[in-house]
Amino acid sequence: MNAGFGEAVITPSNHNCLLAGYALRPATGVHDDLYASAVYFDDGQTQAVLVSFDLLAMEKELIARLKARIGQACGLPPGAIFFSCTHTHEGPEVRERKFRDRWYGEERPDYLDPYLDFLGERTAQAVQAAQAAAQPVDLLVNRAYVDENMNRRFFLSDETYLGVPGNKHLTPVTTEHADKELGILAFCPQGTRLPCGLILNYAVHPLTAGQVAPLISADIPGVVRDLVRESLQCPACYITGAAGDNHPKAPEAGFAETRRVGQVLATEAVKRAYDAYKVPGPLTVRCLTRTLPLPLRTYEEFTQIHGVDEHAIQGNLCRVEKPGAVVDVEFALLAVGPVLFVGVPGELVAELGSVLKWFSPFKRTYILYQGTDSLDYIAHPNAYRWGGFETVCGQLSPGAVRPLINAMLDAAEELAAQAIAL
Q1: 80 Cβ partners below 8 Å, 6+ apart?
Q2: How far apart are CA 220 and CA 31, in angstroms?
Q3: Which end of the chain is less crowded, N or C, counting CB atoms within 10 A of the terminal residue's CB?
Q4: Buried b vs exposed e over 267-292: b needs ≥16 C-beta within 10 Å?
Q5: Alpha-carbon span 263 to 224, nearest angstrom
Q6: What pLDDT score does 420 carry?
Q7: How far is Cα 411 from Cα 265, in angstroms, rounded to an integer?
Q8: How many structural domains is the chain composed of?
């Protein structure tokens, strides 16, 4: 298999943007650049590209637009193009729905049209660079378990719920589910163990510097990429896993914490690339994209969430454009050898990401966060019995979650069967 890495800066010109995290603050400067990081694969029969963006999220309309731009520039069909967002809270807001439905009352900003054109141009450049860099490679795989994330929900014995970010003194004692696997994929020129690029996957919201200075920043992923490049002289494509309810242990703590967490993750990535396992060849690339008709939630479903009040309902119902309507929800699967990437349409919580890992027919399965749409949080059914932010801030009906997960697992089985047939 041939593989190549490419990247392009996607920082808005003159820092002209509203920061997507929290309450749409205007950026006042740039702390560090944002990137689109691309990895191109070609097994001789199938080509595919994976692009990770330093953006909070993208909706399906923008995803389709960017895929069309890549197709024109690079000759790849939409079904061979896979996206993910690192989910930095310190990048530009690009979701049209947020302005169209006036979630926070803002008008559509003037920066949006020129930035989206710029984003399309730079994305195509990143993919072209990855294609140009493609060479025969071996795939080395490893994992490390890194204790730098936490579940931001804290449940009390009286059946009530607290959010840890708003009660930071609870950080040392929070014990709900967190996915601590750092997935490490090292692509090395054939016959060597010296990477020409890494793909890294970790389930944590990149907001160590969220809600501090209103500066553009890639947050944790930017530090990880810089240190991998310094140590191994190669690029890294950082992919956020199922981080819907997984926070850094010190959210909103500032850029010193950003550097610290990024250093821990990068150090583990470099260290465990050294003793990674070489996957026997030949390696194959397989792609599959599916849509599933699923219902959006209704006002009545909001009222059934434990602990929700009318203020919370009205603040989140505006996110659901057509309550109760059945819409086509897309997910996408990319298999590279024994590794499966699953592009999901929103903020999948860590429990559901782990379910996909546990039931997957692939040895390694990694979530592409906000990969096919931005339908906000996708929580597991039991979460609605307890309530909390992840259950209120979502567009899909609670009843849509199980069919969606089942469809993803069925598609994974289908891709695995194709591998056996080969």
Answers
A1: 46, 47, 48, 49, 287
A2: 12
A3: C
A4: bbbbebbeebeebeeebbbbbebbeb
A5: 6
A6: 60
A7: 31
A8: 1
CB of 60 within 8 A of CB of 373? Answer: yes
Tokens of 211: 């809600």
- What pLDDT does residue 419 have? 67
Q: What is the pLDDT of residue 245?
A: 95
pLDDT, tens digit, for every residue of 40-96? 999 999 999 999 999 999 999 999 999 999 999 999 999 999 999 999 999 999 999
Q: Which helix (H) or strand (E) holds 397?
A: none
Query: CA quadruple 8, 13, 14, 15: dihedral positive or negative?
Result: negative
**What is the CB neighbour count within 10 angstroms for residue 391?**
26
Distance between CA atoms of 50 and 52, rounded to whole angstroms?
Answer: 7
**Domain limits for position 313:** 285-421
Output 246 or 384, whichever has higher pLDDT: 246
CA 408 to chain centre: 16
What is the tens place of the pLDDT at every residue in 201-239?
A: 999 999 999 999 999 999 999 999 999 999 999 999 999
Asked whether residue 224 is domain-assigned, the answer is no
CA distance linking residue 335 with residue 284, whole number of Å: 8
Tokens of residue 176, six digits: 């709900």
> Does any domain span residue 387?
yes
Is pLDDT at 421 greater than 60 in this prediction? no
Asked if residue 321 lies in contact with residue 101, where contact means CB atoms within 8 angstroms, the answer is yes
Phi and psi at 330, nearest 5°, equal -100, 140
Render pLDDT for 5-42 as a digit per residue (tens, 0 to 9).
999 999 999 999 999 988 899 999 999 999 999 999 99
Alpha-helical regions (H) of 155-195: none
Domain contains 167: no
How many angstroms separate the CA atoms of 224 and 238, rounded? 8
- The answer to the question of residue 304 being in a domain is yes
